[in-house]
C-alpha cells in the first residue's frame, strides 16, 4: 500500500521482546529517529515476539504460528522496522517456515521484502543522511552483532549515522565482528563457554580505549554489559538508537542510578 | 576412533580451565585467520571461484554414481583396485584384509581423516601390525595417544614443551637421549626416526583430497611431503577416501585446489600437491606394487538424499573451525570425535546419531562466521538448525527447557496474557535490581551467572504499556 508523499512512509514498529521488557527507551528512541526522518510510526498491538527462540530451538511449528501473527499484524504497513538485526533476520527467514503453504509463503516473502533493521532503513531506504540531531560526549566503540552483520550486511550504516553525533568519537576495537557469545538460548545453555566468549569481547572493548560500547541488538548488549559490570568496568553500554536519538543521558545498561 | 561426543559439556569445561590449551588456542586462531584473510583478499576472483566450486560440487553430487563408476573404471585401467565400503566396519575389514594378504607387519600412514573416522589404526593394531603416522602432527598425537583436535593441524593444541617431553620419552629407544627444545631440532629428530619407519614399512596408507574421475588420479596436498614417501616407498599403497571426494576432471580439481590452500593455511598452494595414478608400471623406478582405493560411504549416501546434502560439498579445509568462536574457546577435543568445530557439529550427529552428539548442534550461537568463510558456501548455521529441528521432533532436550519453551510459546500466542506476564516480570526484576541497575542472582537458577556476568535489570515499565499511556496522552 502507498501513502500520500506528504505523510512519508507508514512504518510498523516491531519492538522486540527484549526491548519491550528491558529497555523501553530503545523503543522510544527508534520512534523518534523514524519520525525525525519523516515517517509515521505505529506500534501494532498484537505483536509479542518474532518467534526466534522457537525457531532456533527447532520448534518450527510454534515459530510458524508466531510468524503468522507478525505477518498479519504488519501487512498493512509500508515497512516493518525494528531496532534489532537479529529479529529482522528472523523475519527474513519466515518464508522458509511455510514451504507447505504457498499462500503464507508469499505473504511472508512480501513482508520480508519490506522489513528493515533500523539503521539500514534510515540510511539505505530513506537516505536520511542528515537527520540526526544528537550530542554525546564520549569515545565509543561499536560491536557488530552477528545477525545484522552477516544476514543483513549491516556494518557501514550505524557508523555513518554515528558520525553525525556531535561530541562522539568512534574508535574500532579488535575483532569487532566476532560473536559476543550471546546467541539467544546459547548463553543460558552453555554459560561457561558463553562467558569465555564475552570475556574476550569485554577485554577488546576496554583495550580500544573507548568509554562507551554501542551496538544494534539488545541481547548482545545485555550480555556484554553483564560482563563489563561484573568486572567492575566503567565502560557504559547503550543501544546505538539511544545515542542517535539523543536519549542516552540516563544510566547505561546495567548501570545503577548512582553511577 | 571412539566417540566422546556425549561428554561435550564436561570436556568443554575442562578445556576452559586448561591454561596450556588456552594459550595454544589463542596463538593458533590468530595465525590462521590472518593468513586466510590476506590470501583471499589478494585474489580478485575469489568470490567467482567460490561460486564455481559450489557448481562443481553440486553437479558432482547430483551425478555421484556416474562419476564414482567412471573413477573406478579409470583406476582399474591404471592397474589399481577399487573397494567399496558401506560402513566403518567394512572399511576396517577391507584394509585389514589387504594388509593380511600382503603379509604386512608394519604400516605407515599419511594423514587421513576418514581413516580416523572408521578407525583404521585401531583395527590394524588389533591385528598385530605396527602403525606409524607420518604427518608430524598426527605422529605427535599418536605418541600422546590422543585423537586429532583439528583437521588441518591435528596437534594444534600441543605446546612445544609438551612435544619436547613426548619426543624425549619415546625417542630414547632409537638412541636419541638428549632433550631437545628448539622447533627445527624437534622436527629433525622426528624426521630421523620416521625415516627408518618409511624404509621398513610394508604398506602405506594415505587419505585423498580429491579423486579425479576422468583419469583415476588421487590427489593429496601436504606441507611436509610425508604423503609422497608414504605412498611410494612401501610395497602396497592403500588410499582411503569418502565417496564425496570424487571430482569430474583435472580442470575442476584445480579450481578446488586454489580454494583449499587459501582457506586452510592461507597458502596460494600447499608445498606438495601430489598425484597418484596407480601401481608401478614397467620401467618405473619406484612406486608400489599394489594400489588399492577404499571408497567409504559410512552415512554419506543417506546425507546425499536428505536436507544435509550440502554438507557433502565440504573439502575439509578447516576454515570454519578456525573462525568459530566456540571452537576458539574450547578447542577440538571437546567435540569428542574426528571432526570438530562447525563442520563436525553437523557431521558427527549425522554419523553417530542425534543422541550421542546431542550437544553439538546446540553449542553454537548461529553467528554465521563459519558460513562466511566456507569456500564452498555450506550454510552451516541452517544445517545446525535443521538438526535442532530433528532433535525437537525426537523430543530430545531436557524437560525443563522443553517446558520453558512450551510455556513461552503458549504465552507469545496470547498477546494480552503475554503483555501481563512481561509487565510483572519487568517490575519484579527491576525491583530486585534496586539502585544498582543489575542483579547477580537470578530468581530461577543462576546459569547465566556461571559465565561470570551480572544481569542488567529492566527499566520497570514495559514499552508497550508506556506507549499506550503516551498514545492516550497524545490523543
Ligand atoms: S565446512 Fe566449509 S569451511 Fe568447514 S571444513 Fe568444510 S569446506 Fe572448509
Descriptive notes:
Chain B: GO terms for molecular function: 4 iron, 4 sulfur cluster binding; metal ion binding. Chain B: InterPro entries: 4Fe4S_Fe-S-bd, 4Fe4S_Fe_S_CS, FTHF_cligase-like_sf, Helical_ferredxn, LUD_dom, LutB/LldF, NagB/RpiA_transferase-like. Chain B: It holds the Pfam family LUD_dom. The complex is a heterodimer of chains A (about 260) and B (about 475). The longest helix of chain A is centred in the last third of the chain and has 17 residues, at about 190-205. Chain A is globular. In chain A, the strands form 2 sheets. Chain A has a 4-stranded parallel β-sheet, sandwiched between helices. A 4-stranded parallel β-sheet of chain A has the order 6-5-7-8. Chain A contains 13 helices and 8 strands. In chain A, helix 5 (about 85-95) crosses helix 8, helix 7 crosses helix 9 and helix 11 (about 190-205) packs across helix 12. Chain A has 2 domains: about 10-125, Rossmann fold (3-Layer(aba) Sandwich), CATH 3.40.50; about 130-245, Rossmann fold, CATH 3.40.50. By secondary structure, chain A is α/β, with parallel strands linked by helices. Chain A has helices at about 15-20, 25-35, 50-55, 60-75, 85-95, 100-115, 120-125, 145-150, 155-160, 185-190, 190-205, 220-230, 240-245, and strands at about 10-15, 40, 80, 115, 135-140, 165-170, 210-215, 235-240. Chain B is of the alpha/beta class. Among the domains of chain B are: about 160-200, no CATH class; about 415-470, no CATH class. Chain B has a 6-stranded parallel β-sheet with strand order 1-10-7-4-2-3, with helices on both faces. In chain B, helix 9 (about 160-170) crosses helix 10 and helix 16 packs parallel to helix 18. The termini of chain B are far apart. The mean pLDDT of chain B is about 95. The chains are: A alpha/beta (about 260), B alpha/beta (about 475). The interface between A and B is large, with 73 and 66 residues. The complex binds iron/sulfur cluster. Iron/sulfur cluster (SF4) binds near residues 314, 315, 317 and 375 of chain B.
Amino acid at each position: 500500500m502507498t501513502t500520500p508523499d506528504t505523510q512519508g512512509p507508514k512504518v510498523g514498529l516491531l519492538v522486540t521482546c527484549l526491548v519491550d521488557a528491558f529497555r523501553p527507551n530503545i523503543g522510544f528512541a527508534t520512534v523518534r529517529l523514524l519520525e525525525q526522518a519523516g515517517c509515521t510510526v505505529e506500534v501494532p498491538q498484537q505483536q509479542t515476539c518474532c518467534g526466534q527462540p522457537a525457531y532456533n530451538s527447532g520448534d518450527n511449528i510454534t515459530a510458524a504460528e508466531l510468524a503468522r501473527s507478525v505477518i498479519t499484524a504488519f501487512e498493512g504497513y509500508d515497512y516493518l522496522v525494528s531496532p534489532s538485526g537479529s529479529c529482522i533476520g528472523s523475519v527474513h527467514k519466515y518464508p522458509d517456515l511455510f514451504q507447505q503453504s504457498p499462500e503464507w509463503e508469499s505473504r511472508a516473502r512480501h513482508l520480508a521484502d519490506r522489513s528493515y533493521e533500523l539503521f539500514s532503513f534510515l540510511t539505505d531506504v530513506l537516505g536520511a543522511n542528515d537527520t540526526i540531531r544528537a550530542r554525546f560526549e564520549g569515545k565509543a566503540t561499536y560491536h557488530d552483532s552477528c545477525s545484522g552483520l552477516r544476514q543483513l550486511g549491516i556494518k557501514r550504516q550505524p557508523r555513518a549515522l554515528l558520525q553525525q553525533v556531535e561530541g562522539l568519537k568512534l574508535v574500532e576495537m579488535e575483532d569487532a565482528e566476532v560473536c559476543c557469545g550471546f546467541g539467544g538460548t546459547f548463553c543460558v545453555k552453555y554459560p561457561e563457554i558463553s562467558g569465555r566468549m564475552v570475556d574476550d569481547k569485554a577485554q577488546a572493548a576496554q583495550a580500544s580505549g573507548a568509554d562507551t560500547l554501542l551496538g544494534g541488538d539488545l541481547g548482545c548488549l545485555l550480555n556484554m554489559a553483564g560482563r563489563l559490570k561484573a568486572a567492575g568496568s566503567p565502560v557504559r553500554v547503550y543501544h546505538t538508537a539511544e545515542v542517535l536519538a539523543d536519549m542516552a543521558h540516563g544510566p547505561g545498561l546495567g548501570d545503577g542510578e548512582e553511577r | 576412533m571412539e566417540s566422546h561426543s556425549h561428554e561435550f559439556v564436561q570436556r568443554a569445561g575442562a578445556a576452559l580451565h586448561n591454561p596450556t590449551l588456552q594459550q595454544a588456542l589463542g596463538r593458533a586462531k590468530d595465525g590462521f585467520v590472518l593468513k586466510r584473510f590476506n590470501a583471499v583478499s589478494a585474489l580478485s576472483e575469489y568470490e567467482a571461484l567460490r561460486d564455481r566450486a559450489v557448481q562443481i560440487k553440486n553437479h558432482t553430487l547430483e551425478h555421484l554414481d556416474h562419476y564414482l563408476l567412471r573413477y573406478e573404471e579409470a583406476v582399474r585401467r591404471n592397474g589399481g583396485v577399487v573397494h567399496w565400503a558401506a560402513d566403518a566396519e567394512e572399511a576396517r575389514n577391507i584394509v585389514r584384509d589387504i594388509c593380511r594378504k600382503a603379509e604386512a607387519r608394519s604400516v605407515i600412514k599419511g594423514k587421513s581423516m576418514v581413516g580416523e573416522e572408521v578407525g583404521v589404526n585401531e583395527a590394524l593394531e588389533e591385528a598385530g601390525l605396527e602403525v606409524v603416522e607420518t604427518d608430524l602432527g598426527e605422529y605427535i598425537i599418536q605418541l600422546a595417544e590422543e585423537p586429532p583436535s583439528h583437521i588441518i593441524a591435528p596437534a594444534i593444541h600441543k605446546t612445544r614443551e609438551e612435544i619436547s617431553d613426548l619426543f624425549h620419552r619415546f625417542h630414547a629407544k632409537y638412541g636419541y637421549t638428549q632433550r631437545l627444545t628448539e622447533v627445527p631440532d624437534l622436527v629433525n629428530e622426528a624426521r630421523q626416526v620416521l625415516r627408518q619407519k618409511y624404509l621398513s614399512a610394508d604398506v602405506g596408507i594415505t587419505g585423498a583430497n580429491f579423486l579425479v574421475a576422468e583419469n583415476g588420479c588421487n590427489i593429496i596436498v601436504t606441507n611436509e611431503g610425508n604423503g609422497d614417501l608414504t605412498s611410494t616407498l612401501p610395497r602396497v599403497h592403500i588410499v582411503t577416501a569418502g565417496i564425496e571426494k570424487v571430482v569430474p576432471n583435472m580442470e575442476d580439481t584445480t579450481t578446488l585446489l586454489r580454494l583449499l590452500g587459501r582457506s586452510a593455511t592461507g597458502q596460494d598452494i600447499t608445498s606438495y600437491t601430489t598425484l597418484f595414478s596407480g601401481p608401478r608400471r614397467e620401467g618405473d623406478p619406484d612406486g608400489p606394487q599394489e594400489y588399492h582405493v577404499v571408497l567409504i560411504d559410512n552415512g554419506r549416501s543417506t546425507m546425499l538424499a536428505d536436507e544435509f546434502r550440502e554438507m557433502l560439498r565440504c573439502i575439509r579445509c578447516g576454515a570454519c573451525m578456525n573462525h568459530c568462536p566456540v571452537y576458539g574457546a574450547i578447542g577440538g577435543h571437546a567435540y569428542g570425535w574426528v571432526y570438530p568445530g562447525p563442520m563436525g557439529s553437523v557431521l558427527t550427529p549425522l554419523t553417530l546419531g542425534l543422541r550421542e552428539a546431542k550437544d553439538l548442534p546446540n553449542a553454537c550461537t548461529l553467528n554465521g562466521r563459519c558460513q562466511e568463510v566456507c569456500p564452498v558456501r555450506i550454510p552451516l548455521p541452517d544445517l545446525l538448525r535443521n538438526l535442532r529441528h530433528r532433535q525437537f521432533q525426537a523430543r530430545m532436550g531436557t524437560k525443563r527447557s522443553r517446558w520453558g519453551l512450551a510455556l513461552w510459546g503458549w504465552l507469545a500466542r496470547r498477546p494480552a496474557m503475554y503483555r501481563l506476564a512481561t509487565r510483572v516480570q519487568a517490575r519484579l526484576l527491576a525491583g530486585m535490581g534496586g539502585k544498582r541497575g543489575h542483579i547477580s542472582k537470578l530468581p530461577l537458577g543462576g546459569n547465566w551467572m556461571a559465565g561470570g556476568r551480572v544481569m542488567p535489570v529492566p527499566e520497570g515499565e514495559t514499552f508497550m504499556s508506556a506507549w499506550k499511556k503516551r498514545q492516550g496522552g497524545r490523543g
